[in-house]
């Protein structure tokens, strides 16, 4: 990875998710190696489980607005999520928005074993 590249893990998660749920989703999506930030919707980014997770990884959190989520084109198109959030995948949209214009997904979002969290990793260029 180039030294000027961003690698952002985006998350979507349920209210009952734990830091372990988030960690499991991240591992399934490719792991922490090379990450520069974590991203989540504004209304989820200050959840205690997410903040504890970010502190444990010593990574900054990008808080993604609803408008920025809805502006992303995602691989996954979950109808329930589309109706609730205006995007097909919160995790994919958060990762793309967090990594900036021209970002690309590593793969579609991955779901934790307990089905409480989803994670997608996107890469982009620092501007």
UniProtKB/TrEMBL annotation:
It comes from the Bacteria. Residues 8-122 form the CobE/GbiG C-terminal domain. It holds the Pfam family CbiG_C. The keyword Nucleotide-binding does not apply. GO terms for biological process: cobalamin biosynthetic process. Keywords: Hydrolase. GO terms for molecular function: hydrolase activity. This is Cobalt-precorrin 5A hydrolase. It comes from Rhodovulum imhoffii.
